[in-house]
Structure formats: structure tokens, C-alpha cells
Amino acid sequence: MGRRGRRHRGTSNRNQIEKSREDVQKPLKSDASNFQKPIWSNLDFEDYYKEQRIVKAQEWDLFMEILRKPLPAAFRVNSNGQFCDDLRLKLENDFMKSLQAEAVESGELEAIKPLPWYPNNLAWHSNFSRKEIRKNQTLERFHEFLKLETEVGNMTRQESVSMVPPLFLDVHPDHFILDMCAAPGSKTFQLLEIIHESSEPGSLPKGMVVANDVDYKRSNLFIHQTKRTCTTNLMVTNNEGQHFPNCNTKGTLSKEASEINHHTSNHLLFDRVLCDVPCSGDGTLRKAPDIWRRWNSGSGNGLHSLQVVLAMRGLSLLKVGGRMIYSTCSMNPIEDEAVVAEILRRCGCSVELVDVSDRLPELIRRPGLKKWKVHDRGGWYRSYKEVPKSQRDGVLKSMFPSGKSDKDSTGGGNIYEEITSLSSDESAEEVCDLPLERCMRILPHDQNTGGFFIAVLHKVSPLPEFQEKINQRRNFSTRKTINSYEAVSDTVVTKPEEGVEGVVLEVAVSEKENTSEEGIVELAKKLDDMGGKREVPLIQGKWKGLYPVVFLRDETVIKGIKSFYGIKDELFPLYGHLVTRNSDISSHGNVKRIYYVSKAVKDILELNFAVGKPLKISSVGLQMFEKQSSKECEANCCSFRITSEGLPVILPYMTKQILYATMADFKNLLQHKSIKFLDFIHPQIGEKAEELALGSCVMVLVDDTQLGSEPVKVNSSTIAIGCWKGKASLTVMVTTLACHQLIQRLSDRRSKELENAEN
Ligand SMILES: C[S@@+](CC[C@H](N)C(=O)[O-])C[C@H]1O[C@@H](n2cnc3c(N)ncnc32)[C@H](O)[C@@H]1O
To answer: Which of 20, 169, 181 has most ligand 1 atoms within 8 Å of CB, for mutation?
Structure first.
């Protein structure tokens, strides 16, 4: 095959991939002129899945019936939330009972119930769809509860099947985890919760999550939500997953930096990888009925090769001994079993499909298929031999159960290459000889959910050398990466330094936060002390709302914060853990927002700087301090207030600017938002408030016995809010919504205590 022909096929295939990707990701236009009523059926879909035999003939009608019903709502109580137990009890003891009448009326057995396979009754399924919950008046109280707790970050609405993959990943708090296709981030939140679960309040987990997604707009939505997780252990990147950088140090790091990088040898490697790939999404038909209209077998075919390369890249970034989940919300074997079979063939003995049949026994799932066929416009094919040459652009060998890709897996060929001579037995229906029965397919009618597919992979040894070489070749052809990224986003590209092949961009911020270019360049000079690498905007000569992350090294600012809040370096180091972005610096050179990064994130950030910034970081760490200018502020006042999301992390290490208050004064402040010192219910608390330095402070709720015996040890149940101490009054610095939610939770606790006392 000549080069021209091959290139042509490659391009056409690429176009098809792009098209499928667009089809999958493009939100439907919501304006009235484009609105089309869902059709709830698609004969091609029915023919396809009947032929693939994903369900037995006798189950077919039920399968289709359930697919046409709206998806019941599901939600999770966030396990790190301060009110986790309170919320779980409220669901178990209050809503489960009070909603029951409503359920019986609509013919259901239970209104809400915990998902039996999810640990600790933390995930719930409601027999009402989200629409019903919104519309029904009796359900209003429940709806308000869900809305409020979701808004403040105590709960997450998430499709139940989408909660499954993190549970099979076997995550430990010290794990470095890569979530390759993370947006909108529901599984990332779960992963973060797991790594935080066993850490003490204020002590940060050793592990971290890199949440990557090529689509920076989708990532930005997700970044906005990460505030509520109060985590310092997250980095969000916008690399193409298949080109995710090695961050290979090639022995160029100093001894100190190499030690930092100890856990990653000379590559950035991960203990766990979640590869939740872009897919045709027909498992979400119940939630997104517009898919009925759009569905065709070409979508799955067009995504297959992207899914293979994403999974292969994930495996190459995985440590030996590590675990990767490959998952899709599609029921299509071309996107599911065929991809898993292809990666197993490419990896040889270095990767195993893990049998997890003994895990989560209450989760109903079906074994992966060993037989399937491939369909395209030309019809059905049982083996690659049957595919006419004219159709081989879109139908690949790797889509068939046998794969027949020996040549591909040596690294010499590529998956678009043609086979012209095949033996006669290849025309028979193929059966895959790999243990694909270990994969899991969740079908909608099994437990009233969406459809999902999961495979658990274990890396036993390094991948075959040629596979690693293929990955390295892909990673970095840097220019290509930049160009393909430009297609989907506005990017600031860091000017490549001598000897460093193309390095890319950083942080996305909203347009309104834009600062003048001169100001930023000026500030970059001041703040970027990481080897003097200054960021230069290349694309269209504009910053386009994307700004670099820089370590904050300003001694005056850091010392000011430390002394004002009484933070001891040996207990909670600030230096080297504080970062800011150029967008967070005013044109006068003043830092506006400061983020805190855990040791794990700091290490990766430093590694990224050291190897020329191949990671396109769009968000990192937790916003902990915010500039707060006030006329009342005196010379010794610190102009950085502690943010609500930063407070739980820093509180255990603060020795100054803390006011302890009992319930009456605490609630009073939440209700009135601002209280004069003279108006405190307990005058001694008012006096203490007056003694605080002007500026940011924290009010901590204590019980009557603790008052007067300060300092009180902070633990995971400590309730505190950020405040501002003015000349005559104390003011809360949290939103009205957060005040409202806190009052609600405190009242519920109080009623529970009274109830317990009565019994
Ligand atoms: C199924 S969604 C992921 C859902 C997500 N894991 C969650 O639980 O919320 C697939 C994601 O893959 C992203 N994506 C598509 N192509 C990609 C690529 N080449 N590299 C990385 N991400 C990609 C899409 O932007 C999309 O957000």
C-alpha cells in the first residue's frame, strides 16, 4: 500500500473520529427553533442490538420498555462532607418514610432507597425521575433538600451506574490517580472522596488526582464545582488523553528534584488510571432521549480507534502493579469488548483482565461478550475478510473478536493497514479467545438504571517495548498536540525554550477576570521565579483568558499570613505550597487569590516546570486566601482573608484570629450576618471578638463546657465559619445560601439530640 493511500485512509478515519466525537459531545441546541421532540425509538438501534444478542430474545421487550422510561434520579452523600452522617440519617429516617405515601400512589414500592451495592448507604436511588421530583408539590421539601445540599457540596447528583467504576479501582489514600477523560467530573469527585476518606482533619492525603479532559469548556464547568470539595489534592489538565505527557526527566533533574520525583522514577506514572472514554453514549438513552434520533452504528465504529489509543496511553502511564478501569456508557461491543480485546492483544502478557466477580455482589451485571459482529453502511460482517476494500476506512480489524492484529501489535504496522489475504476459516463467525467474560455490562432493565460497560485491568509488567515506543512517538510530537488543541480551545502557549521541545499553556479563567497584558507581563517578571521561564502568549498575540500558574514566593505576603493567623511552618508549611495565576494578579502587581497545593500536587507541579511544562494545567489546588481590602484595615492587618473552602484545611493549624462561640451566638450570627460586639448573647464572647485583630477571623462552634477552656482541639465534626472583624462588629463571610444550609443542619442536629434525650 502506497503512502498516499494510507494517508488518505488516515485522514478519512480521523475525520470520522472527529465527527463521532462531535456527535457525542455536541450539546443539542436548546433554542425553540431547533427543538425536536424525542422519538423514543430507532429501528436501526433495535436491529443492531438484536443482532449483537446483548440480551436474550425473551428479555427484549422488557429491555426496550425500560429504555423508554425516564431514568430515576440518583444521588450520593459526599463521604468527606462534615454532615455526611446527618444527611444519611435524614434520608434513612425522615425522607425514606415521609415520601413513602407518594411512592405507593405512583405504583412504586419504595420512594427512595440506598443502592444496595454502594458502601455505607451513601448512594441513593429515587423512584422518581428528576422531572417528577421538580414538578410534584409533595416532593418539594425533598427537592429543596437535594438542591440545597448539592449546591453547598454535601451531595452530588450522579447516575447510579456512573458511580460504579471508582468502586472497582481499589483506590488508597496515597495513590496517584489519573482520570484521563474526567469532565464533567462526577467520578473525579468520587476518587477525591476516597483518597480523603481516611485522612485526619487538616492532614492532607499523600495521594492526588490528575483530572484530565481535552475539552477545556467542559473542564471549566467541572473546575467551578471543585471548590466545594475543599481539596488541595487535585490538578486539572487539558491534554489530549492519547498524548498525555510522560514528564520524562531523562536524568536532567537535580538530586533534590529527583528525590521529589522518587515515586514516579523518571516518568510521571500513576498507581491508578480511570479511562472513562468518550463514547456513543447509548447507555444514557433514558437520560438523553435525543440519542434515539441520532443513533447509528457508525458512531461506535468511529470512536473505536480513539478509545483504543486512549486506553493504551492509560496503560503506559500506569505503574507496574497498578490498576486501570476502562469504561463507557455505551452498550456497543465495538466500543466495549472489541477495545478491551485489542488492548489485551497489544499488551501481550503485560496486562491482565481482572476477575472481579466476587466484588460488589449486589450489583447486577452481565459477563462481557465473546462473540459480536461489525456493522456499517454496507451491512453486517462476521470477520474482517468480509469487509469490502471500499469499507475498510471505517471498519478495522481490531473491531472483530479475533482482531487479527499480530502485525499491528509489533508496532511495525498501524491499525488502518489492510490485510489482503486471509485464510478461509476467517469468514466463520469469530469467537474471541480472551477472557472477556470478566468484563461487566450493566443493562438498564437489570436494576432500573442506564447502561454501562466496565473492564478492570492489571498491569503485570512493563508493556512490550514496541508499544511503549509507539506511545513515546505520539508523545511528543508537540506541535501536533498544540495544533489539535487549538482546534477546540483558546490556548496560551508558552514560548519554547532552547532545547525544550514545545511546551504548552496553563490556566483557564473566566473572561471577566481578564487583566491587562502589560500588567501580567510585569507581574510575570516579579512572580515567576521558577528558573526565570517567562510565559509568552503566542496564539493571536492575546492571553485569551488563559493564564499560567506561578508559585508564590513573595516573602512579605507569606510572612504576613503566617504571623496574622499564627501558622507554624513545621506543622503547615506555606512556602512552596502556595500558587497563584497571572489572572489573579492585579495590574499593580498585587496578588488577588492564593491557592494551596498538597505535597503530591506540589511535586507534580515542580516536575512539570522542570521538564518544560508539557502538562496543560487549567486548575490546581484549593483557593485558600483572597485579597480583601477594607478601609478599616490597619498596618498590622493581613489583607488576605481565608476562603470558606480553604477554612477546613487550615483551621487545625491556626493559633490566632479564632473566636469560640456557643450555639446561641453562633446561630445568631448566621441569622443576622453581622452582630455588634455589644449585642452578643454571651457578653464575654463579644469581648473576645473585640480583642481580635481587625480583619479576617474564624468563629468556631463549641459547647457550653468548652467555653473558657480555649484553645479547643479541632476535629472532623468541628463547625466553623469565616468572619470579618470590623471596628464595632463581626460579620460572616459566607453566602446566604451557606448560612441557610448551616442553620438547617444545626437545627436538625438539635432536634435529634432532644429526641435522643427523650428516649
Ligand atoms: C464519558 S465522558 C467522561 C465522563 C466523566 N468521566 C465523568 O464521570 O463525569 C468523556 C469525556 O472525554 C473527553 N474527551 C474526548 N476526547 C478526549 C481525548 N482525546 N482526550 C481526553 N479527553 C477526551 C470528553 O470531553 C468528555 O468529557
So the answer is: 181
Sign of the C-alpha dihedral computed for residues 622, 628, 634 and 635 taken in this order: positive
- Phi/psi for 579 (5° steps) reads -130, 160
Beta carbon of 276 within 6 Å of any ligand 1 atom: yes
pLDDT at 528: 30
- 640 phi and psi angles, rounded to 5 deg: -110, 115
Task: Locate 402 and state its grid cell.
Answer: 479475533
CA distance 272 to 316: 11
3-state secondary structure of 322: strand
Ligand 1 atom at minimum distance from 329 CA: 1
Helix or strand or coil: residue 207?
coil
Question: Which amino acid would we find at residue 632?
Answer: E
Give pLDDT tens digits for 736-746.
988 998 999 89
Closest CA to 323 of 354, 347, 345: 354
Q: What pLDDT does residue 109 have?
A: 61
Q: Which residues contact 6 (CB under 8 A, 6 or more apart)?
A: 414, 416, 417
Q: What is the structure's pLDDT at 409? A: 37
DSSP 21-74: HHHHHPPPP-SGGG--------HHHHHHHHHHTSS-GGGHHHHHHHHTSPPEEE
600, 262 Cβ separation under 8 angstroms: no
Determine the 3-state secondary structure of 541 from DSSP: helix
pLDDT averaged per 10 residues in sequence order, the chain, 759 residues: 35 47 44 65 96 96 95 92 91 87 63 94 85 73 89 92 98 96 95 85 86 91 82 94 85 49 65 98 95 95 97 96 98 98 96 98 98 95 92 94 59 36 55 97 97 98 79 45 24 23 23 28 31 33 54 92 93 94 71 93 91 90 88 75 92 94 95 96 95 94 82 82 94 91 88 80
Expressed in angstroms and rounded, the spacing between residue 551 Cα and the centre of ligand 1 is 29
CA–CA gap between residue 387 and residue 379 (Å, rounded): 9
Distances in whole angstroms, Cα of residue 394 to Cα of each of 149, 214, 299: 47, 24, 10
d(CA 325, CA 339): 12
Tell me 360's DSSP state: S
Joined together, the cell numbers standing for residue 531 give 528558573
CB–CB of 354/438 below 8 Å? yes
C-alpha span between 228 and 193 (Å, rounded) = 12
> Ligand 1 within 6 A of 150 CB?
no
Predicted pLDDT of residue 367:
98
Q: What are phi and psi of 139, to 5 degrees?
A: -85, 0
Give per-residue pLDDT as tens, 163-183. 999 999 999 999 999 999 999
**What is the C-alpha to C-alpha distance for residues 398 and 409, in angstroms, rounded to an integer?**
11
Domain ranges of the chain: 72-158, 490-627, 644-758
Find out whether the beta carbon of 328 lies less than 6 Å from any atom of ligand 1: no
- State residue 80's pLDDT score: 86
Task: Determine how many CB atoms are found less than 10 A away from the CB of residue 717.
Answer: 12
Strands 270-276 vs 176-179: parallel, antiparallel or unpaired:
parallel
Asked if 376 and 391 touch (Cβ cutoff 8 Å), the reply is yes
Neighbours of 14 (CB within 10 A): 15
Nearest Cα neighbor of 322 from 456, 458, 455, 207 is 458
Cell of 639: 489583607
Residue 702: predicted pLDDT: 93
Do the annotations mark residue 635 as ligand-binding?
no
